[in-house]
Design goal:
With 110 residues, this protein is mainly beta. The protein has strands spanning 12-13, 17-23, 29-40, 43-48, 57-62, 67-80, 83-90. 0% of the residues lie in helices and 50% in strands. The relative contact order is 0.24.
Length: 110
């Protein structure tokens, strides 16, 4: 979240497949196919079986366009049915990563 308490870009409910790569909390490399819950120009909320730590570096791959972005874990929720909500914040804003036809106006990067 921005220091003013406002989000830098709007979240959009968007269910799309992604591949997350990184190391689990016990330092074992993983690659997990999953899906998004919400997305923004600055990252996504995904469901992960792998246990990850706040601040941990991950790579998000969009299989629809083979684009990938580096990011960090900004939030981890409690696991339910073996999956936890994990917010991944991109290192750099990437509004075109999701290929949404009509993204919110605040997704434009100047």
């Amino acid at each position: 979240m921005h220091p003013t308490g406002q989000r830098r870009s709007a979240r959009v409910l968007f269910d799309t497949q992604v591949v997350i790569r990184g190391e689990s909390a016990n330092r074992v490399g993983f690659e997990e196919e999953t899906f998004t819950v919400t997305v923004s120009a600055h990252g996504a909320l995904v469901l992960l079986a792998a246990k990850v730590d706040l601040g941990q570096r991950l790579v998000v791959l969009n299989p629809k366009n083979s684009d990938q972005r580096e990011g960090r874990v900004a939030f981890t929720g409690l696991a339910h049915a073996g999956l936890a909500q994990v917010a991944v914040e991109f290192t750099d804003p990437s509004p075109d990563f999701w290929e949404i036809s009509s993204p919110p106006p605040d997704w434009r990067v100047s």
